Amino acid sequence: MKARVKWLGQDGMAFVAESGSGHALVLDGSSDAGGRNLGPRPMELVLMGLGGCSSFDVVLILKRSRQDIHDCVVEIDSERAESDPKVFTRIHLHYIVTGRNLDPGRVERAIQLSAEKYCSASIMLEKTAEITHDFEVRPVD
After folding, report:
1. pTM score over 0.90
2. Structural domain span for residue 48
């Protein structure tokens, strides 16, 4: 896997990040860091990557176990160290899984399998952060 990050110039702190699969997005800093708020901060991307990695696993596991899943949202809350390097020290993932006749036990197991076996981002981040999970199951309206 490869990626490339290029600074957009001397008038700010914006960068273009390109993935090996050909996708790109703008990264930027806050105004107090010389940025113009044109895109997410790099550490926000880390959390977004964690949420994406884990959600992908949960949906795939539930589909494979023949659960009638219609939606999956993960809300992520985190805390970082006070001093540099400001690593994540605590991350909480709250899953909201919507579907028809979903088995809460299977949802819980899918989250557990993602956290302990499949989600590379989660397994990597747990080296510095306490990662916790909870979930709610919502019926289809």
Report:
1. yes
2. 42-139
